[in-house]
Sequence to fold (143 residues):
Amino acid sequence: MNNEARIDKWLWAARIFKTRTIAAAACKKGQVCLDGAVLKASRMIKAGDVVSVRKPPITYSFRVLQPIEKRVGAKLIPEILENVTSPEQYELLEMSKISGFVGRAKGTGRPTKKERRSLDDFREDVPEFFADFDFDLEDSDEL
Fold:
C-alpha cells in the first residue's frame, strides 16, 4: 500500500464523489479542504488527515484511514475512511429538508403537465360567487 494518494483519486475511490472528474471539479471550486486550506486535485494526502468536503447545505468531514487510489467495494469503505462530521451539520441538513421550499428550484426545467395543472389551480381566478360581490361597502346604499 502507498503511504499517500492524490485527493481527487481518494475522493472517488472512497465513494464520496461518483466520478473522479466531479471530485477534481470540487477541488477546483474550493469545496475540498484540509485543515482549513483549500486543496488542489493533485494534492497528496496521507493516513490520519481530516478532509472537509462541502456539499451544500452541509460540510462533511472524513478522517483518512487508508490513502487508496483504486476504487473498492462499498462494504470496504469503513476501512478507508471514518466519518467525523459533526451532528450540527446533520441537523442543518434535516432543517433544509423540512423547510419546504415552495418555488421551483432554478434549473429544474419546465413543469410537468401535472405540476402545471396544480399551478393553474392555485392561480385560478376569483370564484364565481365572489365575482358579483361589491367589496366597497362604504359606498353601498343597501346597508
Summary: The beta strands are 4-6, 32-34, 37-38, 44-46, 50-55, 58-64, 81-83. DSSP finds six helices and seven strands in the chain. The first strand starts at residue 4 and ends at 6. The mean pLDDT is 82.
